[in-house]
Amino acid sequence: MTPAAPPLPRVFAHRCGGALAPENTLAGLRAAAARGFTAVEFDVMLSADGTPVLIHDETLERTTNGRGRVCETPDAVLFALDAGGGERIPTLAEAAALCAELGLFANIEIKPAAGYELATGETVASFVADHWRGVPPLLSSFSRQALAAARRVAPQLRYGLLFEAVPRNWRRQMDEVGATTLHCAADCVRDTTIAAAAVAGVPVLCYTVNDPQAAQRLFARGVSGLFTDRLDPRDPLAAVA
C-alpha cells in the first residue's frame, strides 16, 4: 500500500521569499526560513541549455539586468546576471539543496516558455524524482501539457493544477493530468468550488494573499492553503498551523 502523502502546509512564501528578498533567489529561501516559513513556492523554466532555473517571466528584463528570452539565453550568460541585490538566478539543483538544508517544503511551479511545455515538465519532474532530498515537493502549473508530461515521467509525485478563475469542468481537467490540488486566485475562488473540492478531497490553495484578515476569511471558508508576499507566519491572524 502506498503511504498517504503528508498534509500540505497552510502558508507558502511566494516566489521563494515573498517581499523579503529578490524573487526566485536563494536569498529569498533563506529569508523565508529566517522569518519562520516552513514552505515556499517558486517558478522554474528552462535556459537555452536546457537547465531548469528559477525565474517567473519568459523574459529577463523585469527581474534581472539582462535582456531577451530565458529559453534563448545560455547558462554562461544567464548565471552572470544580477537578479536583484547581487543575487543571481539559481538552478533548480541549488534551490533543492538549500530547501533540504533549511527544511523547507516546496511548491515548484512549472513555468514553461511558449513551445517548451513538454520539455519543461519532463525535465523538472525527472530532476525531482532522481535528486530531491526530503519530502518531495508539490509540482504545479497553469500548463496542462507540462503537468501531463511531468506525470508521465514521475507518476509518484504530487501535482497541482493552476487557474486564475476556476472553470466549471475543473475536476475533469485535474483528472486528465493526475492533479490532486487545485490552485486559483484568491479573489476568484467561489464557495461552491470550495465545497465541491472538499467533497472530492481536493485541497484548494489560493494566491496571492497579503492581508491577515483576508487569510482568516479564506481559511474559514475552507481554503486549505495560501501563497503570500507579506504575511508573517508567526502572526496568529495568519492562522498558520
TrEMBL record:
<protein>
    <submittedName>
        <fullName>Glycerophosphodiester phosphodiesterase</fullName>
        <ecNumber>3.1.4.46</ecNumber>
    </submittedName>
</protein>
<dbReference type="Pfam" id="PF03009">
    <property type="entry name" value="GDPD"/>
</dbReference>
<feature type="domain" description="GP-PDE">
    <location>
        <begin position="9"/>
        <end position="238"/>
    </location>
</feature>
<dbReference type="GO" id="GO:0008889">
    <property type="term" value="F:glycerophosphodiester phosphodiesterase activity"/>
</dbReference>
<dbReference type="InterPro" id="IPR030395">
    <property type="entry name" value="GP_PDE_dom"/>
</dbReference>
<dbReference type="InterPro" id="IPR017946">
    <property type="entry name" value="PLC-like_Pdiesterase_TIM-brl"/>
</dbReference>
<keyword id="KW-0378">Hydrolase</keyword>
<dbReference type="GO" id="GO:0006629">
    <property type="term" value="P:lipid metabolic process"/>
</dbReference>
